[in-house]
Amino acid sequence: MAIKPLGDRVVIKRLEAEEVTKSGIVLTAASQEKPQEATVIAVGPGLVDVKMEVKVGDKVLFSKYSGNEIKHEGQEYIILKQSDVLAIIE
User: Fold this and answer.
1) d(CA 85, CA 87)
2) pTM
3) Greatest C-alpha distance within the chain
4) Chain mean pLDDT for the chain
5) For residue 60, which of 77, 80, 46, 39 has the smallest C-alpha distance?
6) What are the tens digits of pLDDT across the range 44-62?
7) CA 65, CA 69: separation in Å to the nearest integer?
8) Are 56 and 40 in contact (CB under 8 A)?
């Protein structure tokens, strides 16, 4: 069963947190900060005055405290408005 967002909403899946820093220090799960990068899983149809600029498969940066975290079929997702997406990573 797929998640189909409504209006200008976007479903994203957060990328995994880095377990080792660039200098080689291993981080415990408690000390890891949740990444603000995600992959777009589903995109709503948009609104009359809002064109959807993201598409499925895009890697995006999003606002730290935005959206609603949900669990669906054992996976964790975030549903947020397109305006909470800050940038597309190319």
Assistant:
1) 6
2) 0.80
3) 49
4) 85
5) 39
6) 999 988 899 999 999 999 9
7) 10
8) yes
Distance CA 33, CA 18 (A): 9
**Overall average pLDDT of the 4-26 stretch:** 79
Q: How far is CA 78 from the centre of its chain?
A: 6
E runs forming strands in the chain = 9-14, 37-43, 59-62, 68-72, 75-81, 85-89
What is the phi-psi region of residue 47: left when phi exceeds 0, alpha when psi lies from -120 to 50, beta otherwise? beta
Exposed/middle/buried for residue 64 (C-beta within 10 Å: 0-12, 13-18, 19+):
exposed
DSSP-assigned letter for residue 15:
P
